[in-house]
Amino acid sequence: MRRRDFVSLLGGAAAAWPVAARGQQSAGMRRIGVFFAGLDRGDPEVTARVAAFQQALAGLGWIGGGNVRIDYRWGGGDADLRRKYAAELVALGPDVILAVGSPSITPLLQASGTAPIVFKEVMPNLGRVAVLSNPTFSTSALLLNALQTSAPALGLSLQIVEARQPDELEQAVAAAVAQHAMALVVILDAMFIAQREQLAELVARYRLPAIYGIEEHVTAGGLMAYAASRPEIFRRAATFVDKILKGAKPADLPVEQPTKFLLIINLKTAKALGLAMPDKLLAVADEVIE
């Protein structure tokens, strides 16, 4: 397959970027590739996304095993696996590739701010906030810049802590606590998602309240997340894939901003941290895990 143009469905400052890419047209059955950079094949969090995507495609007339074949590959948050399976997926020659998450884009090409506001509701005296970032993630700089721009207006000072590999996570969390951070904002990253249970255990051990940009962290034991609706993103991704399969040029398709965001709170984790969640925050939460 040749180097492609990409069309992005932006999932917000702390969410994923599903991306559709145009490939070679083929006769008869069409072929779609889907590449998950940060999740494993057996991860239960994949199920809802795949179901939403396939249901939306079916509603548009694309039936798996009928007039379209869908090939899935998973990177599991591992850079070597991402390169291997990206090359494998490209070699299959799909008409369209849906790359789930910005970390998916680079290997495919090679082969071919609201969080602190929610925290102010929970911790009115919040002053110093640590931000966990993976500097190897392609859009970390952009996300950090957005946080640094908004922090002064909220009366917050930010401390950046970094982890490039799973074995660096504890050092990063410990550094945040050592420098008196009162809370932690975790920037979206494939490695962080893959290690979400380890990360939840670490912040619990250090008693550091944390907020994330994707709901999987909360179901793994994290405190809270404010994120674009993942099923909705995948339903919208299906409409882009449909347009491309029908001949639309990716460069002519508009970039879409998400319209549905979710606030998820783990009340069990809040109680373990000694945090009393305000009733008004619980009332507007889309999901409360007890």
Shape descriptor reads globular
Estimate the mean pLDDT confidence.
Answer: 79
Instruction: Summarize the biggest pleated sheet.
Output: 7 strands, mixed
Strand order of the largest sheet: 7-6-8-9-10-11-12
Helix fraction bin: 25-40%
- Relevant CATH superfamily of the largest domain: Response regulator
Into how many domains do the coordinates divide? Answer: 2
What is the name of the CATH class of the largest domain?
Alpha Beta
Structural class: alpha/beta
CATH fold naming of the largest domain: Rossmann fold
Rg calculated over all Cα atoms: 19 Å
Cα distance, first to last residue? 48 Å
Q: Element order, helices and strands?
A: EEEHEHEHHEHEHEHHEHEHEHHE
Which CATH-level-2 architecture of the largest domain? Answer: 3-Layer(aba) Sandwich
Q: Could you name the ranges where pLDDT drops below 50 across 5 or more consecutive residues?
A: 1-26
Number of strands: 12
Instruction: Give the helix tally.
Output: 12
Approximately what portion of the residues adopt beta-strand conformation?
Answer: 15-25%
